[in-house]
Design brief:
Layout: E1 8-11, E2 16-21, E3 26-29, E4 34-41, E5 44-49, E6 52-57, H1 80-91, H2 103-106, E7 109-118, E8 121-128, H3 138-150, E9 155-162, H4 175-180
Parallel strand pairs: 8-9
Antiparallel strand pairs: 1-4, 2-3, 2-6, 4-5, 5-6, 7-8
């Protein structure tokens, strides 16, 4: 797991798929490009290149010369409890791009349902919110959540609903999140 705002310049060691920040559009950065790692939290890196921000998934950390962040250990054929534990771990690895706190601690995940469709096929539906309805980071958070959950064995589909009722407030934050942000 990586934490912090590195502001470390690196040369990409290989071509890498990424998404633009904040709109979440898929793109590719070329090997040999100079980027600045501006944020490395959970399983994602935010990099800047020529004034534009991009989000690189932790699975592609090697393109930055960094180790791939670990995932929760889970068997190839997990039972329901193991899948739920892996989902919880994965959601704790997704950070709001503007706040150095994960989305679970921020209280952004309102509901997470897992449905077993077959022995090796599960579908997940999540209701989550943003810290503000006009927050431009929604597409990035949705991408990061979907990406994290689709790595869990047997999860074949993830539906994410951005909802704004009830409206998010700081009362939804955990004590740890309040401490991290200096609000406690």
């Amino acid at each position: 797991m990586f934490f912090g705002h590195n502001n470390e310049s690196v040369v990409l060691l290989r071509d890498v798929d990424c998404v633009t920040v904040p709109n979440g559009e898929p793109t590719n950065l070329d090997a040999g490009s100079l980027v600045v790692i501006t944020q490395a939290l959970g399983r994602a890196f935010t990099v800047m290149m020529r004034g534009n921000l991009y989000r690189i998934d932790g699975e592609d950390a090697d393109a930055l010369g960094k180790p791939v962040p670990p995932m929760a250990p889970i068997p190839d054929h997990p039972n329901d409890d193991e899948v739920r534990a892996a989902i919880d771990f994965a959601l704790h690895q997704v950070y709001d791009p503007e706040i150095p706190v994960d989305i679970k601690e921020l209280g952004l995940v309102y509901r997470c349902d897992v449905e077993r469709m077959a022995e090796d096929h599960r579908e997940v539906e999540i209701d989550m919110t943003l810290t503000a309805p006009a927050c431009g980071m929604g597409p990035i958070l949705v991408h990061d959540v979907r990406s994290a959950l689709m790595r869990i064995p047997t999860i074949r589909h993830v539906e994410i609903n951005l909802v704004f009722d009830p409206p998010w407030s700081r009362e939804m934050m955990s004590e740890a999140a309040l401490l991290e942000t200096g609000m406690l």
